[in-house]
Design a protein that fits this description.
six-stranded mixed sheet; two-stranded antiparallel ribbon; globular
Length: about 525
Amino acid sequence: MNIIKLLAAVVLAAAAFVAGPACAEWRRAETTHFILYGDVSERTLRTYATKIERFDALLRTYYPIQSDVQIPKLEIYLADGARDMRRILPGGSESVAGFYSADAGRIYTVTNISNPEALSTLFHEYSHHFMFQMSAVAYPSWFVEGFAEYYSTVVMEPEKIEVGREDRGRMIMLTQQGANEWAPLADVLKWRISRSGRARVFDYYAQSWALTHYLMSTPERQGMLSQYLNGVIRGADPVAAMQTATGRTSIELQSDMRRYFLGRITYYTPQIDIPMPEVAISTLGADDGALVWYDIRLDDTPLVVAPDNDPDDPRSEGRRAEMARDTARHRAELITDALAAAARRPDQRMAMLVTARALRLKGDPAAGLEALQPLLSATSTDGDALRIAAALLMDQVKAEPDSGNSPSRRRLAMAYLGQAMEHEPLDFRIYLGLNDTRRGQPGYPNANDISTLEVATALAPQADESRLRLAEAYMAKSMWSEAKTMLDPVANAPHPGADRVRARTLLAAVALAAGGGADVEEEPAATR
């Protein structure tokens, strides 16, 4: 789901990220559930804002979200072709239609509007975001991808809405290959491509979409899907649960699917009224627009790079080492370029924020705090500046744990975060920041620590870090069932990564402490 983690590790060229000419005019569009940004025409921005807001309304019609907190608005950035894609993914493929990122730094999506698959990719990625907000359960990996693929083809026009339309690329794969060329459905159900290590990426996505489409095609099959999902969520074997729900073996079910796709597939024209949403358009300052891509990348670049030790990752040690070197170069170039761009507009708020985070990434928290001083005061309402200042103070505490300044720095960080919360109560990063000030302290975790992490997770269930921290806090209090609920979605993620490894390790510890066993050896699906 988080494709930027894969793409950001490719070879990065410094020249690709050199600041271009001043932006024409960055605009901001706000709807009930989204905030969109783009150096694009007002018409384009309004069109995308309208489509994604109506798409959200469609999903909520079928899958109402129950939440104890107000759900934050998702930020969407419209990239205008190769020019912008080079700025957000230097060295990456300019043909990427978009991606979604959800981690402790920021939750957002980027859509390359010059790509013909831009809208379907946006719908796919938002479906992932929506699924995590909709439910706390751990769905099977094939259904996580199949659900997103199924809704990615929605036709969302003023005069019509169609659900379940075909994906031509997937259809070609499904209908032109022979029956023996399909990946075994039992492998797809078990969240793996093949034990041989031959990652059949296209097959996996096509068959995940195909199985979802087949099971969504009639009310009877929808009931089978519901029965299957409930069984797997309760711990049933995925292959056995599917046979129980459908009355068909995986081989028989695969034959049924093949016949279905050789015929005429089912799509719906929902008879529901989804009104055109209100879209508020405003213009960003030229200086803010010039720093947008730096702003995103600095939030999305971790302060410490986690070791790449996923046992399911088929890359060689040499390839991993090469990618680690590329990542280090990427970080150095980002710091240099961001500081240079911000220095050209030193009195602007965005420039101060970019400078502070670039200096934090460089390992100079004192200079970062100095850059933020104009934005910090007892009456400041700038939640971002206050949150970043708190993070910089905690960096100093961690660097000098025995310093006599540590207690006062920790107290000031907590004060900044409390002040930030008053003005940005829906920013989950503030609650994670408060957790940073408490971790490792006497009595941690207490009831308030757990409550703080529960709020962070309710606001951002898509962020693995929120779930992992809360699970660790639950484990410290022997709340094994609650910990498992937090960990299962991360451990079952289709994509490899350090968070999934960490979740599976914690799950094994939960199972051992609770007196049970843990099956944490499923192989991954491929990355999108």
